[in-house]
Amino acid sequence: MNPQDLIGPVSPLGNPAPFWFITFFKVLGFILHMIPMNIWYAGMLLVAIFATFGKNHQLELAHRLSRTMPIIVALGVNLGIVPLLFTQVGYYQFYYPAGILMAQAWFSVIAILIFAYYGVYVYSLSVKKNKSTKFALASAWVSSIAFIFIGFLFTNNFSLMVNVPNWINIFNKTNIAGAVTGTALDLRDPTLIPRWLMMFGLAITTTAVFIAFDASFFKKNATSDEYRKWAGKFAFRLYAVGLIVFAAMGSWYIFGALEKSTLNAVTGQPLGLLLFALTAISPGFVLLVLFGQRKGVRGGAVVTASILQFIVLTLNAISRQWVQNVEIFRYEDVSKLPVDIQWSPMISFLVLFLIGLAVVGWMVAKIAAVEKQAAKA
Amino acid sequence: MHYPWWYVPNLTSPMLIAMIATVHVFVSLYAVGGGIVLAGETSFAYKVNNKSLLDYLRSHTLFFILLTVVFGAITGVGIWWTIALSSPLATESLIHIFVFGWAMEYVFFVLEVISAFIFHYYWGRLDPKTHRLIGWIYAVAAYISLVLITGITAFQLDIGNWTPDKGMWVAFFNPQTFPQIIARTGASLLLASLYIYLHAAFKLKGDHQLRALVENRTSRWAMAGAALVTVGGAWWFINLPDSARAALAGASALNILSILVFASSAVVFFMLYFGPYRNPGWINPGFAILYFLLGIAATGTGEFIREGVRKPYIIYNYVTGNNVVVSDIPKMQSTGYLNGGTWTKAFVKAHYPQVMGADGNIADSKLLQLPPQDQINLGRVLFQYHCNDCHSVNGFSGIVELTRGWSKDMIGTVVTHLDKAHFFMPPWCGTQAEATLLTEYLVSLSPPSPSGMRFSSVNAKSDHTFANQIEGEEVSK
């Protein structure tokens, strides 16, 4: 079988938006999704660890994180819609087959995610009621492991999406009269593990920044100076750990797993090389800023670190997109698919997007005012 | 047909969509109706300054969030994940048509999540005016998300004036959209009320007075809901495409069920009027559970009917139940179903290279030269890709039971005249030779008539041999 044989035809409907628009919202959507996703991805494990083994401030951190975790998960799940939507629009010939080949895993994510999310609530409500039970602790562990496992399954989907030769193996192994059982994963893919753990490293770094952010801005009145001091130092250390994981896994991915031709296609262009270099070194700047506030969180430093971390995530998302495009264009240059722009729905969406941002801004301003007043009182 | 088919034994993969969609709708309707009722009742409680009512509403909001933001939201995205696995071509098409509809939906989902959490966590900390407003932001966002998604599901049942060169709005404003929006608005209010009765019956067990107030207030929403369900349902029925109405009339189960849904909405209206509205306070936990289960059953049935009458299409007149674009059918009928599917063709090419023609396509004429077992195997491939969307082998709508005791002729005739046998099946989309392969496969499965029935067992046996004789004669001629 030839990989090209398995790629379906182009949709007669035409893409509803130009390719750059689809890619832009796919990447933007992914950045927005990554922020909360990173926080539960690494943060929930931290909660479980500190809730079980932690003392004093560590325990306090577990409690603080768990109180905001329900909204973080809700936001992250909903913010995941747009990147997946635009993946389905722009890359359908690759996305759907990969998903179907591992359909059982995909389908199981629904149940796993519901369990994981209720687990977050069980622990969070137990902290709120000040009654920590074994059941609540166990829930925190189950949730954190479930989140990491879901990440593993999603990594499978997105690595399988570009690994067309592996479709053939899977198709041969898991079909019943030509229909697939959906039991596969992309386990034979050398990029799978480093990709998965690279995101985990990145998640640790984002969580570290969030911990500093939380200590300096949320519930100001209830936060002791000691905790703030501790949080500054801890955020710095945690970031360093995340950076080590990210760097190690990133190097494995780029130098040990990624196909040379793909790497060359990106780094062969000055812009690509620059992008990769920036992606690799950008977390270093955040670490430096966090180093500056290791003796206690400071608003200015934390805001700077947060903005820089946003840039780190942005660079990661763009690099990933670039690599994905190189890998996919090998089979079909999806940027050249026919386009039939749906102007008025597109404009309606953009307008609503802005209105939505404004409404969110208004609501956040309202609660910020409440928090400020509480801090004064 | 552009994608691999996901084989789920005994159930068929599209049934997974039905399962998850049904449990989703129980909660998603509450997410909308409950948001409206909570915003309305909170405004009322502030206005009359009723502290205990506010406290109750606050505790209900936590219950509401735990159910809608977790279970409701995740099963909602779950439906979307599942349709991509089980009906990929239809999903690909819907997403191309409605991508910006879904993108707008996303804006409202995010607004819902943020406003719901603020509404709950800042209860008592925000001034009443802002708090009320945030409740209404949630209600409006949730309602618009209902409107948007309903336009898309309505489009699947009737594409109206849409053609592939027309954009999203033509697709959105199809004849089914408004009736379905009204029916669902009603269902959402009605179902939300039942959730409130249920919650209040337990939570306010000891507080008779407050419970009576909550019941009385809620029953207004519920009655409005029951009325809207009836109006929307009737309008929906009037606007149904012919095939859907025939499906309703033909399937006695669907027919009885839909009458039940209408009748029970009307009954519920009067029950509500004379019950919690005129005589509030009498709903005890047992009654609340009963009411609630009735509501769930009616909602589930309504949605089941809505989905059921769409056959043979996933998108009316555009994508069939077996994931084929309608306009591709004539070509497939002449050059072959196996040829028309990306994965079926790759499969045949890899496993049966002897049937590939010089032009790189499957040569129809070579199919029937394969040894009998290979013919049956390819027949099975055809079954997977052409029939397994709606039929399993032994389980749900199992083909084995459907063809029990059938002669080869009968099976062959139905295969080539699917749409004539039942208009809710798509037409046969392959060549004559492919029909023969599929028939061979089905014959190899078809069990004899049950033994012990004198006339049928005699007939069935003679029928089989008769059919074989004719086959034999034809071959020998």
Give a written overview of the molecule.
- The complex is a heterodimer of chains A (377) and B (477).
- In chain A, 79% of the residues lie in helices and 1% in strands.
- With 377 residues, chain A is mostly helical.
- Chain A has two domains: 17-189, no CATH class; 191-333, Up-down Bundle (Four Helix Bundle (Hemerythrin (Met), subunit A)), CATH 1.20.120.
- The relative contact order of chain A is 0.12.
- With 477 residues, chain B is mainly α.
- Chain B is elongated.
Brief characterization of the structure:
The complex is a heterodimer of chains A (377) and B (477). With 377 residues, chain A is mostly helical.
Strand order of the largest sheet of chain B: 1-2
Helix percentage of chain A: over 70%
Total of helices of chain A: 13
Largest interface pair: A-B, 76 and 76 residues
Largest sheet of chain B: 2 strands, antiparallel
Which outline of chain B best applies? elongated
Domain module count of chain A: 2
Query: What is the annotated CATH architecture of the largest domain in chain B?
Result: Up-down Bundle
Largest sheet of chain A: 2 strands, antiparallel
Would you count the extended β strands of chain A for me? 2
For this entry, what is the oligomeric state of its chains?
heterodimer
